[in-house]
TrEMBL record:
GO terms for molecular function: metal ion binding; phosphotransferase activity, for other substituted phosphate groups. Its cofactor is Mg(2+). It comes from the Bacteria. Keywords: Cell membrane, Magnesium, Membrane, Metal-binding, Transferase, Transmembrane, Transmembrane helix. It holds the Pfam family Glycos_transf_4. This is Glycosyl transferase. GO terms for biological process: cell wall macromolecule biosynthetic process; cell wall organization; lipopolysaccharide biosynthetic process. It comes from Roseospira navarrensis. Mg(2+) binds at N170, D230. Its main location: membrane.
Length: 362
């Protein structure tokens, strides 16, 4: 491998890679169009069958809204992911079959959970089985935690982290637009970093998920006409989380940490804070920073736009890590400061934000 590729000549290599591999971009556009159509048709079907998300203690909406929009997103994305796998990858390796099988299995489990809630133990057991089964089969080139943990502990910790990411992606799907925005950002970051570093990672797969999320976002933007449901958030967290672990195992740990940092930080800090206050981790709540911001009066759209802006900066910082160890360390520090600042603003809303409109459900 040429030194510049190994070190990751960022922008020029990204441009050349994406220009010479327009296939992934075509698949992303196809996923967006198919998702746009499929989610609209699905909305009517869910309404007719009264598959609705009724407001509860965790909700930030006030009106019963169809849930299960992830079925339409997956109906658009999965055939393209399978086609990419059958053609041995477009613009890079395909998503491993074991992850596709795990994603479909979790979608089936989560759809059952959407229709009639499952107890926590069988639900979490399914998540752990999908994560550890894939880790056992994936040909990871190195340790996920960069040698900080011995081999067996690295595998154990990676599986737990993956299962946590699956669940936090579900927990964070609490206002209109936020998970669509997050999926677009993570899919874009994964594809760009793979191209910039020339590591053998999927390029088409994350862009397909990003495209499908963009199509879904048209109907999920505030006021949302449909929600992802567990059938959407759980498989998305699984597929994106798995690709982030693959990125870390290829030595790009800084990018794998920076790209999802907002979701990781908000969900993890909220969980730790609730545990410190003696709350049950399974109890429904609205304590995430983005939910606090909505309760304070910011609209769903405004909060999701803040998250989108933050994620755009995180994508740029993740890409900057390809330039070498020193830029990677600086990028991690800047990402931590940015995310910490945004979380503080969401929770305490300083005066410079100005007056906000009363929050509305949706």
């Amino acid at each position: 491998m040429p030194p510049e590729a190994a070190g990751g000549a960022p922008l020029s290599l990204v441009s050349a890679s994406l220009t010479s591999a327009s296939g992934p971009l075509v698949l992303a556009v196809a996923a967006a169009v198919l998702s746009l159509i499929a989610v609209r048709l699905l909305e009517r079907w869910l309404h007719a069958r009264a598959v609705l998300d009724h407001p509860n203690d965790r909700s930030s909406h006030a009106v019963p809204t169809p849930r299960g929009g992830g079925l339409g997103l997956l109906a658009a994305a999965l055939p393209l992911l399978i086609w990419d796998a059958l053609s041995s990858g477009t613009g890079g390796p395909a998503l491993p079959w074991v992850m596709l099988v795990g994603g479909v299995g979790l979608a089936a489990l989560s759809w059952r959970d959407d229709l009639r809630p499952l107890p926590a133990i069988p639900r979490l057991s399914g998540h752990l089985l999908a994560c550890y089964g894939a880790l056992w089969a994936l040909p990871l080139p190195g340790p996920v935690f960069q040698g900080l943990l011995p081999g067996p502990l690295d595998m154990l910790a990676a599986g737990l982290l993956w299962a946590w990411f699956v669940n936090l992606f579900n927990f964070m799907d609490g206002i209109d637009g936020i998970s669509g925005v997050q999926t677009i950002a993570l899919g874009t970051a994964l594809a760009l970093v793979a191209a910039a570093t020339a590591v053998p990672l999927p390029v088409a797969a994350p862009l397909i998920l990003a495209g499908a999320a963009a199509g879904f976002l048209v109907w999920n933007w505030h006021p949302a006409r449909i929600f992802l449901g567990d059938v959407g958030s759980v498989p998305l967290g699984y597929l994106l989380g798995g690709m982030l672990l693959m990125l870390a195992a290829h030595g790009q740990w800084a990018a794998a940490l920076i790209a999802p940092l907002y979701y990781l930080a908000d969900a993890t800090l909220t969980l730790l804070g609730r545990l410190a206050r003696g709350h049950s981790p399974t109890q429904a709540h609205r304590d995430h920073a983005y939910q606090v911001a909505v309760r304070a009066g910011l609209s769903h759209a405004r909060v999701s736009m803040v998250v989108a802006g933050l994620n755009a900066l995180l994508v740029a910082l993740a890409l900057a890590t390809a330039a070498g160890p020193l830029p990677a360390a600086v990028a991690v520090a800047l990402a931590a400061l940015l995310v910490g600042g945004v979380l503080s603003v969401m929770r305490w809303r300083p005066l410079w934000l100005g007056p906000v409109r009363a929050a509305s459900g949706g």
